[in-house]
Amino acid sequence: MTHPLLDLAPLTAAHFAAVERRVAALLDTEQDVVIMQGEALLPLEGCIRGGARPGSTALNVITGPYGQTFGNWLRDCGANVVDLEVPFHTAVRAAQVEQALAAHPEIDFVSLVHAEAATGNTNPVAEIGKVVRAHGALFMLDAVASVGAEPLLPDVWGVDLCVIGAQKAMGGPAGVSAVSVSERAWERFAANPAAPRRSYLSLLDWKERWIDGDRKALLHAPAQLEMLALEACMERIEAEGLDTLMSRHASAAAATRAGASALGGGLEPYVDEARDAAPVATTLRTPAGVDASELVAKALEADPSLPLIAGGGALAKEMIRVNHYGVDATRGTVQSSLAALGAALAETGAAGAASAAGASVVDLEAARRAVTEAWR
Fold first, then answer.
1. Pair type for strands 107-113 and 57-62
2. In the chain, pLDDT over 90 holds for what percent of residues?
3. Which of 97, 106, 242, 245 has the lowest tally of Cβ within 10 angstroms?
4. How far apart are CA 353 and CA 245, in angstroms?
């Protein structure tokens, strides 16, 4: 018996290259694009291990947990790491990056996360890119959560290594990712004797055996299902239009923020300023004494499909994430998510406690109106 997901014709090199070209068009880049056969942590680690070398100095901007991971990798490569950490309820400013670079002129590598879905913030990459390029450092950007949700222009912004994944705003598969690589980055990799070679982490292998070989022979058997899913994802984005897709995510973020504020019950946006809030996910702070994990579990009892999760690690007790990305970037999903949170607050008695503490009571109708009015 044949099976549509199992009995597939081989994915040719030409087909693989065609998907790469569509990804390059999405990023509006003239740089080389390499599609990696794994989740985005694969190219992220490959970029760091290729771009950082023993004795080099890296500026690692930390606005969430992924920035912390990058610092660990950089240190493991033998690089001297300057951490620039800002509170997770805000964003880093270009002036802060400029000050760090001025204080450490030896910095030759900068790592930054564009949007941190885990904390709900987003960073002003266009302004930061100008500062990094003026300094001359290699610039790596984690754009996994931002691609498709907000403008992303690696060439214009001076990004040397731009890593994306399809599993969030793009609405695609999690098991495949991509990175655009500048000529400066290729030169850095080639000059680094510690850069991965003959390894699944090696971008140089893709350069030497795939790109320099005119994309005639793949390095290994491609992740066929994931590649076909990525192609379908690109087709859907092209049909909707990138501007429309980004507008939908911006509307979801604005509506969630406005609706949560109107809902009452002590819920409030975790990211202080709207300009710093990521369009891919909105994080909310629970009232004092209310465990975020327990509140999310209660909210999901009626509808487990809602894109609600508690924060990770130390944030699990105080933060809720509304992951309004991809197919969940809709007004209906936002309204349903806030309604479930409001009902959970009321059911657990948390709303009464919040009211006694001076916060407003839960008002589902006010939240619904705010979502409708904020949707653009």
1. parallel
2. 90
3. 106
4. 39
Q: Where are the beta strands (DSSP E) in the chain?
A: 32-36, 57-62, 80-85, 107-113, 115-116, 121-122, 138-142, 161-165, 177-181, 268-269, 282-285, 308-310, 319-322
Task: Name the β-bridge partners of 249.
Answer: none
Ramachandran category for residue 283: left, alpha or beta (phi over 0 → left; psi -120 to 50 → alpha): beta
C-alpha span between 90 and 92 (Å, rounded): 7
Give me the domains of the chain, ranges plus CATH numbers. 13-239 (3.40.640.10), 242-374 (3.90.1150.10)
Dump pLDDT digits (tens) for 180-236. Answer: 999 999 999 999 999 999 999 999 999 999 999 999 999 999 999 999 999 999 999
Question: Would strands 268-269 and 319-322 be described as parallel, antiparallel, or unpaired?
Answer: unpaired
What tokens were used for 132?
């990094």
- DSSP 8-state secondary structure symbol assigned to residue 276: G
d(CA 163, CA 147): 9
Q: What one-letter code names the amino acid at 169?
A: A
Between CA 226 and CA 238, with CA 232 as vertex, the angle to 5 degrees is 135
Q: Can you tell me the distance from the alpha carbon of 126 to that of 94, in angstroms, rounded to the nearest whole number?
A: 9
Encode 286-338 in three state secondary structure. CCCCCCHHHHHHHHHCCCCCCCEEECCHHHCCCEEEECCCHHHCCHHHHHHHH
Q: Is 269 helix (H, G, I), strand (E, B) or coil?
A: strand
Q: How much is the pTM?
A: 0.95
The helix or strand, by DSSP H or E, that contains position 116, with its residue range, turns out to be strand 115-116
Which token pair is 281? Answer: 């996910």
Residues 6+ apart with CB under 8 A from 212: none
Does residue 177 come out as left (phi exceeding 0), alpha (psi in the -120 to 50 range) or beta? beta
- Gap between the Cα atoms of 81 and 219, Å rounded: 33
Eight-class DSSP state of 13 = H
Q: What angle do CA 10, 235, 247 make, to 5 degrees?
A: 150
Give the single-character DSSP code of 217. S
**Which residue type is seen at 71?**
G
Cβ neighbours of residue 95 closer than 8 Å, sequence gap 6 or more: none
Residue range 268-306, pLDDT digits in tens: 999 999 999 999 999 999 999 999 999 999 999 989 999
